[in-house]
TrEMBL record, chain A:
SMART domains referenced in this protein's UniProt entry, alphabetically: UBCc (SM00212)
InterPro entries xref list: UBC (IPR000608), UBQ-conjugating_enzyme/RWD (IPR016135)
Pfam families: UQ_con (PF00179)
The protein's name in its UniProt record: UBC core domain-containing protein
Annotated transmembrane regions: none
From TrEMBL, chain B:
Region (Disordered): 299-318, 396-437
Residue ranges, compositional bias (Basic and acidic residues): 423-437
UniProt organism field: Cladonia borealis
Residue spans of biased composition, Polar residues class: 406-416
Protein's recorded name: Uncharacterized protein
Amino acid sequence: MFASKRLGKIQKSLPPGIDLVSAPDFKEWQMDIRVLDSNPLYLNQTYRLRFRFSNNYPIEAPEVTFTTLTTPPRPIPIHPHVYSNGIICLDLLGTQGWSPVQNVESVCMSIQSMLTGNTKNERPPGNEEFVARNTQRPRDIRFVYEDSSV
Amino acid sequence: MESTPEQILASLLDEADAGPTRRRSHHPVDLRALDYVDSYDHNLMCAICHSPFVRPVTLECEHVFCQRCISETMFHQGQDLRTDSATCPSCRRKLHHPATTPVTKILNQILDELRVNCPFRSAGCREVKHRGQIQDHVDKYCDYVEVECPLETCLLPVQRKDIREPRCLHGLVKCEDCRMSFLEKELESHQKNHCEAGKVSCPDCKAQVSRRDLAIHAEICPEAVFPCGAAQYGCDFSAQLETLLDHETTCPLVKLVPFLKMQNERLVAHEAALKHLRQKNSILETSFSTIQETLNPSNNNLIDLPSSSTTGSDTGPFDSTAHHLLSLHESLREEVNRVSAAVEHLDAKASMMIMNANLTIKEDLSHTNAAIAGMRMQLHWLVSARLQNQQRVGVVGTQRSGERLGSTSGNNTAGPSGSVELPVRRLSDSNRQDPKL
């Protein structure tokens, strides 16, 4: 479909701090992001993002999570909106917040700026409980956006 | 809203497809999935499908999307464009007005003029068309679109290029080389690309080539030895293709090849023309000699006649005589022409003279006629005068003197005078019809 064509376009140019790691097909992509300024929380760290696209992309939001790797080291960033299993609480990625005019590039930039603006070195409230019992797809989780300042 | 989501989606999609120019087709082309050849302004790109707009519509907030993109988005969000709950994907503004409005025609025209590759490019179609024409191309002209088999009972599809002859290509045929069975429409590609048994090795480069392609391969085989392109004009160089190419850039004979070829062609054409002329000539000569024999057995006078043949001098005595005869014939014809012209001239002159003479004679004749009429009148007058005189002599008798009567009779041409003359004149006047007749 035309969505695959659209995904194909991104490989041409990416903004600084965002790199395409692998895009074997139009189902799942891996991206690396870095924070560009000198925020001490994320300094010299690179994080791996996994995008999963449904057949309805871009009408439907992609599923975006952080993943961990040992080589090269890719931890999950500490952030009040990022659970320790990599699930990101960002309205942009939910059914309500998603808009089809978004793309991989703009999602990466949103996450990048979300990390950049953060000063709290903490996980979201109720992290352990959520990680232990969650079986839902990230997209379907109805987050309560407690704090819109970060 | 009682309708199911499927119905809504179907109706929305129908709306998007039902343009006035769109035709029903087995292969509706999704214009958003096309491969665009032209580069286009990024402002013409739909933010949802990242393709140039297809049937673009404007929202209340003046953001523009493809109709189908915005319909699908709204439907997916559980929002229908026809309700008030819709938001714009770009600015998230609430859309109060239910409907979208189409954009100006000129924008659609610009979009429809973008050139795209045929969607069946992967099947082999190399056409590049304006986007507005691509549906028409796929519906009617594209050779690589799969259409129904010409055999009505056969349900398998076949590419349009294969139905030139209306026959089903879905029968099984055997490849002559590997003895495997294939559908007839696939046989060609099998033999060309896949059949191993049909491969033969090229005698020069040992490469495995399909037997059918051997002739084509032989012409481009890198190992085979070819003669120089000017071999027939005397260059005896021959080598493998690569060396030959170098040689042919320097070989002087190769440069002459086009010229020599042209000369050869001209030579052949001239020979043919010459042969034709020879035949014509011999026919003319035989016929002329027959004429000559019947008219004049001796050929002596031919030599005396002026011979204008200058070209005949270098083609031998045979041709010269023929030319001579021809020129003789020609001069005779001229002579005849001249004589006939002179005759015509004379004829005209003579008829002119006759006409002139005729005119004078006619004039004379009319003069004579007039004179005769005058004389006739006079005669008439004289006769009537004489008659009156005689009557008067009878009535008056002795009253008149004898001398008077005598003078009247003696002067008969001058006419009577005095009281006698007047009544006579009146009579003659009233009888004027006579000379007129």
